[in-house]
Design a protein that fits this description.
123 residues, globular, single chain, 2 helices, mainly beta
Length: 123
C-alpha cells in the first residue's frame, strides 16, 4: 500500500501562490489531488497518470500538478488563489490500470489517501 504524506499548507492572501507537496513511498501509477471543506463532499482538483495531467474546471489554468520521481514527490502549484480555494487538500493514489478504466476522479476516490494539509485563502 502506498504511503502518502502531504505538506505545504498555509494561510495566504487572495491572489498569492502556494505549492503543496505529497511524498509517496512508491510510484503507484496514478495520483491526484482532492480538497474538502467541512460539510461538503470531497472535490477532485486534478490527476496525473500516463504522462498526462487532468484538472477540474474550477482550477484549470491556475493549478499545476507535477512529479519529481527522483524524490518521490508530487506537487500542486497553486496560483491566483481565491477564498473559495480554502480547504483541506489531500493527495490520493491508485493504479494506472484503474485510472484508465474508470477515469482519474472515480479511481482515485477509492484509492489510498494522505492525512491532508490545510490551505486558507483570505480576502
Amino acid at each position: 500500500q502506498v504511503q502518502l504524506v502531504e505538506s505545504g499548507g498555509d494561510s495566504v492572501q487572495t491572489g498569492r501562490s502556494l505549492t503543496l507537496s505529497c511524498a509517496y513511498s512508491t510510484w503507484p501509477g496514478c495520483m491526484g489531488w482532492f480538497r474538502q471543506v467541512p460539510g461538503k463532499e470531497r472535490e477532485g482538483v486534478g490527476g496525473i497518470y500516463a504522462t498526462r495531467t487532468y484538472y477540474a474546471v474550477s482550477v484549470k489554468g491556475r493549478f499545476t500538478i507535477s512529479l519529481d520521481n527522483r524524490n518521490n514527490t508530487m506537487y500542486l502549484q497553486m496560483t491566483s488563489l481565491k477564498p473559495e480555494d480554502t480547504a483541506m487538500y489531500y493527495c490520493a493514489a491508485t493504479s494506472a490500470r484503474l485510472c484508465n478504466l474508470r477515469g482519474w476522479l472515480a479511481a482515485l476516490r477509492s484509492g489510498n489517501w494522505g492525512q491532508g494539509t490545510q490551505v486558507t485563502v483570505s480576502s
